[in-house]
Design goal:
This protein is an alpha/beta fold and 431 residues long. Helix content is 45%, strand content 14%.
Length: 431
């Protein structure tokens, strides 16, 4: 039987307590699904202390950043770069030993991270097939968030190739090399590149000529943990004293600038000035990665002083708590400045919620006019979307039913089986 090695720097943690984002959630769900269905022998390489369920073989890469927390999402920029280097070295060395012990032609390495991934060229030289899963196109992220769209991802990728030809790329800070070099090397040396949306596929292929012919779009769908039989979901409206006639909107993601919660709060400041109707917002999520804590302070300042809009920051929610917030909501808002897919958006649809989203990479894949609205990532556009969707409660309920019907096609198990089929095909195809 073929062996698949899943390499994920964010694997090995309890995601009910530790906020590690969509990449960690997808990696953990793939491990769980493949361990249960057994399409191949499975080995997992992670950085966390908790091995996967079901007796799956697990290798933990030890790492330490002196003076910083032992959770990747809480590290500083410099600390995270150090974590990436330590994980990459440890994973590469383990794969070298594995290739010496086993027939390398029967092994496929699935990289659940790119910037945090191992040495792609060295692994190819060992004779192992490789699949790179892009949860984020980090070069596209840099272009959108740090450069505010002034330069496109394809232009940045070409510029880095120019620096490399001139042999001056090593002058970049470590975090810059991890972004640009790792992504380029992943594209160059992996046999298959998996992305969750058509928009992301287009950007990747325009950025890297070597990506053409390798990219496959596999939408992840909704990763939903159904409550145990007889387990009741929390009554969020009762907990916060919210009347049944008061509209509730929810946004759910990590607290980080690219997630755009500030755009939503600015839209609600317009609502507060112009509308007389009370509204409740839950900004669910915890600060994570790089600038999260400072950004949370900014969000709290934006929420301060609102009169007709009641804003709550419940922190990180998962499992039944998350489902309780989704059940309490009338509308789900996804205000991201940059997004490759949107796992919580898919979860909201599965919970029967209409959605208001910005026009990110997967918005047109996931949202239809019969159950949602796609707007530009600007406060005024989000405000107009809120006015349109909240003006007719009956229509909103009908849109929720359409969302639930559409979500039947967004099944994670279908995505996991599709990826397993692609991997089996790869292992039976000559290089």
């Amino acid at each position: 039987m073929a062996t698949v090695v899943i390499v994920g720097a964010h694997l090995g943690y309890d995601l009910k307590r530790v906020p590690l984002g969509g990449g960690g959630a997808v990696g953990a769900a793939l491990v769980s699904h493949w361990a249960r269905e057994g399409p191949f022998d499975l080995i997992v390489i992670g950085s966390g202390p908790i091995p996967p369920p079901g007796g799956v073989r697990y290798h933990r890469i030890a790492w330490r950043v002196p003076g910083e927390p032992d959770v990747p999402s809480s590290l500083s920029v410099r600390g995270y770069a150090s974590f990436c280097v330590q994980f990459a070295r440890g994973a590469t060395e383990y794969l070298r030993r594995l290739a010496a012990e086993m027939d390398p032609t029967g092994i496929c390495v699935v990289h659940n991270d790119v910037s945090e991934g191992p040495d792609f060229a060295a692994i190819r030289a060992l004779g192992l097939r490789q699949v790179g899963i892009f949860h984020v196109d980090v070069v596209d992220y840099v272009a959108h968030i740090y450069l505010r769209g002034a330069v496109s991802a394809p232009m940045l990728a070409r510029a880095y190739r120019g620096l490399r030809r001139a042999r001056v790329h090593r002058l970049l800070p470590l975090i810059g090399r991890l972004i640009f070099e790792q992504q380029q090397e992943c594209v160059r040396h992996c046999d298959l590149l998996v992305v969750p949306s058509r928009g992301m596929a287009g950007v990747l292929e325009r950025s890297y000529p070597a990506a053409r012919g390798k990219v496959r779009v596999v939408p992840w769908g909704a990763i939903v943990d159904p409550p145990a039989e007889g387990e009741e979901l929390p009554d969020i409206r009762a907990r916060y004293g919210i009347g049944r006639d008061t509209p509730v909107i929810v946004t759910l993601s990590r607290i980080s600038p690219e997630k755009g919660q500030d755009l939503l709060l600015r839209a609600l400041r317009i609502w507060d000035r112009r509308k007389r109707r009370k509204l409740v917002l839950f900004v669910c999520g915890a600060p994570a990665f790089m600038h999260g804590r400072r950004y949370l302070g900014r969000l709290r300042r934006l929420a301060w002083g609102l009169r007709r809009v009641e804003v709550h920051f419940p922190g990180y929610v998962a499992a039944r708590e998350k489902q309780g917030f989704l059940r309490a909501a009338d509308l789900y808002v996804f205000p991201s400045r940059h997004e490759s897919y949107g796992l919580t958006l898919a979860e909201a649809l599965a919970a029967g919620l209409p959605v208001l989203t910005t026009d990110h990479r997967s918005a047109r894949d996931l949202v239809r006019p019969e159950f949602g609205l796609v707007v530009r990532p600007r406060p005024r556009d989000l405000y107009r979307g809120l006015v349109e969707l909240l003006s007719d409660p009956g229509r909103l309920r009908d849109m929720g039913e359409r969302a639930r019907e559409f979500s039947a096609s967004l099944r994670f198990d279908r995505a996991a089986r599709t990826l397993a089929s692609l991997i089996r095909s790869l292992l039976t195809t000559a290089r």
